[in-house]
Amino acid sequence: MGILFLVRHAQASFLEQNYDKLSKLGEVQSRLLGEYWAQRRIVFDRIGVGPRVRQKDTVKFVSDSYHRLGLTFPAPLLLPEFDEYQGEAVLERSLLGLLEKDGSIRELHAAFQSSSETAQRRATFQKLFEAVIGKWVCGEICPQGIEPWKEFCSRVNSGLAKFLSAGGRGERVAIFTSGGPIAIAMQRALQLSPESTLKVSWMSRNSSWSEFLFAADRFTLSSFNSHGHLSDPEMLTYR
C-alpha cells in the first residue's frame, strides 16, 4: 500500500495584482513544513508539483529545509494536471452579467466594494467568489474559453491515476498543488457530490497536507488538512 501526500501551496498574494506568488508568510509556512517533516524523518520516493509559481515555490522552500537539515528530497516532477481551476477567470468573465440579473451577487459585490479593512475585504471577497464559483460548478454559468468543472475533474483524476501508476509498490509520494485538485482527490476517495467537493475545496489551509492510501484497486482517505507545523494561530491561512 502506498501513501500519497497532497499538499496545498502556502499563502499566496491574495488581493494583489499578481496572486500567483507566495507572500512572506507563505515562505515561512513552506520552510516550517519542510522542517517539520525533515525532523520526523519523513522521506519521499517521488515528488510532483503543479505548474503554478505558488505551487513550485512551496516545494522549493520545503526542499531547502530538507537540504539544510542534511536530508535528501527528490527533484519535483512537473504535473500540469494539478493546476488549479481558473477561478479568477470565471469570476472576471461572469461577474458583469451576474450583476445585471442576480440580486444576491449584487449584494455580495456591494459588500466587497464597500469594505476597507484587509480582513473585511478578504471575507467579503471570499463570499462573492464562492457564490460565483458555485454557479460555475452547477453549470449555471459557462464562461467562454474557461475549462468546465467536469473537464477540470477529469483532468485531475487523469493526472492522479498516471502519477500513482508510474511508481513502485509501497511508495511514499507527494504532490504540491492547490485546494481544487485536493478536493477532487477527496471526491474520488469519498464519492462526494460536486457541491460537497466545492465546499471541501474551501477548507484546505495553506501548506496543509492530506494523506491517501493507494493501491491498484484502492484509493482511501487517511487524513485531511493536517497542519502540525503551524503552532501559531496567526500562521493559519486559507488564501
Structural summary, described in words:
The protein has helices at residues 24-39, 53-68, 87-101, 103-114, 118-137, 149-165, 179-190, 194-201; strands at residues 2-8, 46-49, 77-78, 172-177, 209-215, 218-226. The model has no long low-confidence stretch (mean pLDDT 94). It has a 6-stranded mixed β-sheet with strand order 3-2-4-1-5-6. It is built from 8 helices and 6 strands, in the order βαβαβααααβααββ. It is α/β, with parallel strands linked by helices. 49% of the residues lie in helices and 15% in strands. Helix 4 (103-114) packs antiparallel against helix 5 (118-137) and helix 7 crosses helix 8 (194-201). The radius of gyration is 18 Å and the shape is globular. The protein folds into 2 domains: 2-83 and 149-235, Phosphoglycerate mutase-like (Rossmann fold); 87-137, no CATH class.
